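Margin note: ligand = phosphoenolpyruvate.
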Amino acid sequence: EKYVYSFREGNAEMKNLLGGKGANLAQMVQYGLPVPQGFILTTHACLEYGKDEKFLDGIWGDVVAAMNALEKETGKTFGSGENPLLVSVRSGAPVSMPGMMDTVLNLGLNDESVESLARASSDRRFAFDSYRRFIQMYGNVVHGVNGDAFEEVLEHAKKTLGVTFDNEIPEKDLVEVVAKFKEIFKKSAGFDFPSDPWQQLRNAVVAVFRSWGNPRAVTYRKLHKIPDTYGTAVNIVSMVYGNLGDDCGTGVCFTRNPSDGTKELYGEFLVNAQGEDVVAGIRTPLPIAQLKDAMPAIYDELFEITTNLEKAYKDMQDIEFTIERNKLYILQTRNGKRSAGAAVKIAVDMVNEGLIDKKTAVGRVSPEQVEMLLHRQVDPKAENEVLAKGLPASPGAGVGIVCFDADDAVELAKSGKKVILARPETCPDDIHGLFAAEAIVTSRGGMTSHAAVVARGLGKPCVSGCEDILIDLNKETISKGDRVVRKGDTITVDGSTGRVLIGGAPLKEASFSEDFKTVLSWSDEFARLQVWANGDTPEDARRARSFGAKGIGLCRTEHMFMAADRLPVMQRLVVADSYEERVKALDELKVMQKEDFYGILKEMQGLPVIIRLLDPPLHEFMPKERDLEEELAELVAAGKEHSPEADGVRKVMAKVESLKESNPMLGFRGCRLGIVYPEISAMQASAIFEAVLQLVDEGIDIHPEIMIPLVGVKTEMEFFRKQIDEIAKDYMEKSGKKFSYLVGTMIEVPHAAFVADQIAEHAEFFSFGTNDLTQTTFGYSRDDAEGKFLGHYEDKGILPVNPFHELDRDGVGALMEIAVEKGRKVNPKLSIGICGEHGGNPSSIAFCHAVGLNYVSCSPFRVPVARISAAHAAM
Ligand code: PEP
Ligand code: MG
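Resulting structure:
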């Protein structure tokens, strides 16, 4: 096997053998570009060395031969003579592991060659500066000499000289620094600094091989799932210098603007400088456009080369270059990192330029980037103090003054103020406050808490579960230790990262460009999963459609009952003693529900709308006990203890008491409500069909589907199926008109998954309610688990991720697979989707694709993220 390759013998396809850096350098040589000459020891050599250190003896002859060839090509002699060849020894793994492994520069310097370098460069200061850098790097990388000792010498020299920067130390002092560096080396390593360049080379190669196994590289690989079996290549490259005078320089450039995607040569350079100087920020680099004036011929050459590199690699390139005495060298090229907006623009432009196809373009825009484009963001340059870190419950950023009460939020917003609503947690009573606020912060609750779900639905930023702050509603303060934020103080909520910042941070606006829409429409061409949206109102439906949703996958009817004008009617329904009283309240509700359904169905004409029957436990519609007690106390104080009003309050209190359950989420909710009170589901079905009939009259194309929540056994499904079909038949007979509708179920409890074949006999569609299914599968309360222990579970590695956020494939996913298989066995045409929060999560969407669902349904604002994720899943 061949273990040593010259750059001329490799190409970009050989990344596994030559490493990323080496393969790209070799490829550039193939293109005839000016790359400093060099050669590569393969990744296999590293692996062989790992097994047996004697291996290096066997191939050392090849290394010497390659070095001799390099001497010939450059016309220099390695580490000696009047024109000494100096090299860099660099690691380069098949996948980029930035900064994880070792590099030595200026190798080949010793007391003799440093003088030759001084003469050849006519710059003794430069030569000794290179020498001291070499001793420092070599000492540290090869022999583990602590870098602090070297830094102390430099600091001391600068202090004595009264200068600030390394590059201000004059030549004669640098000569002394070099002598001191050699002493440090000897003291630490136990022998003299090696002057033999071949010995230096061999030791450096060994050090790079070994750096593959250093703890930080091992950890990095574990984190990024990079196999340990790759190994690193070693690149040995002749040094070029950008700091030999004013006809020299160094820089970094991109073939397109990495912030906005504009097609232009973009970057920075420094005259008479080394690569490190650009990075270290000692001198301010100049924009690349000025290279045109400083060195016009070099600029033209650079422009041509970079343009060709982009064409060859078919992606935006990030290129390092050095100019040595008016000659341009390309040191590295790689695909460049870019902002979300730039990623979209570059992808579309490159398709239009014929450089890449649509599929490649879609693959180059990540769901995270789509997400960023949909929301305002905190400017990454913001320097505001971080008050707290919670869960990134709803993305985007909001700035405003803090208030602690929903009514206050509304009042302040009315007076033109931007407000942030801070609550320990929110409940349906706070909805108007959530609506009025710019953003929401809670100290309790997780990613599926009330605040989180509602905020995502409204597209408002939200940070939930900030457990390390105290939100005191009485004092109206947020505090963390002795840091206190009071009502009226300005804060920033960064829902994308989960941070709460003090003061108003600068924000960047969202951008929904034409290019963005283009990429999303291309996504739909490749996706097999459809993307639907969860929405409760005509406005939600309109928004969902505008973001590209192909249906409403979940309309939670209870949200409609929470509205201010309906809650009292709903409460009358709940406290009703008799069937008659209940029906009276239901009749009133039916009129309002019909209106709701009419609005949504009309908005979604041509597309399916899944309306779910009432789901939450009834106590959620009732006033808080504390409020009732206060109300009663006021009546008593006013001498009305025995009034009908007081009796009314007592009746409600008794009802609230009787509705109490130990485990309400496992209690009297979902389809169980309709089994006990069939008149409730009957009212909802009637409201739907009355809306349907009206729309049929208007000639509007509608596709209503009725969904039963929390079904566990087939008899439940059968019960509702029969009831709904009878009501529908009745409406058709009475009106003499026909309409079509579907009846289906949610799969939210394990039992439903296990008997999905039986349930499918009566259901025309399934929709996985993975919020509840996760809750019931793990036995973790969706309301409390995140704030109480799931964070610790993640920190301690008990769970890799929060299962309410990212679908758990092993358990919840396994149940889904069972349900899909059993359901489709009975009804091969069964339409199956997901409407839990996971429906908007990229990795969960990939799973839904893999198990063969028909669609995912998520909050309207996440529809674009889901569209790109569905396309990626299908690629
Ligand atoms: C679910 O449980 O996943 C679901 C969509 O229903 P809800 O969140 O309303 O309980
Ligand atoms: Mg549910």
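Residues 554, 556, 615, 748, 769-772, 835-836 surround phosphoenolpyruvate (ligand 1) (CB under 6 Å).
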